[in-house]
Amino acid sequence: MDSGHRPIVGWRKGDYEFIINPIVDMGFGQNGGSVFAPAARFARNLGENLAVGLEYYTDLGPLRNFSLFNEQQHNLYAVVDFKIGRFDVNAGVGYGLTPGSDRLMAKMIIGTELTEGVSDKSSEASKMLRRPESRMMGFSRL
Q: From edge to edge, which strands make up the β-sheet containing 24-27?
């Protein structure tokens, strides 16, 4: 079981967006501890329901003692965001940049509004920075 602080800071200019997500995950129990796992996104909107971009995910290890660089996870994804009916889709193919990362990865996030007819533009930034599964600590991060 884990909990975390996941602030999202983003900038938009024209069709471009840049988002930073300095994630701190906190585990509970015997294997608990705080892990620093920041993420970032740079994307270009190509239309109302289409965007392409790059997403960068890291897992640097425990806050008090970062893992050695070769044991850290540094992953870069090429992603596409699009809409199918009422569903938002974020899909991508990633490559691990360090020995501590999986070499080739894929991700897909499918989301939808639970309240019909109510739009909340503030949720757009959060759709990207749901971390793919990490094998570093043995639990998934979303």
A: 2-5, 24-27, 33-36, 61-62
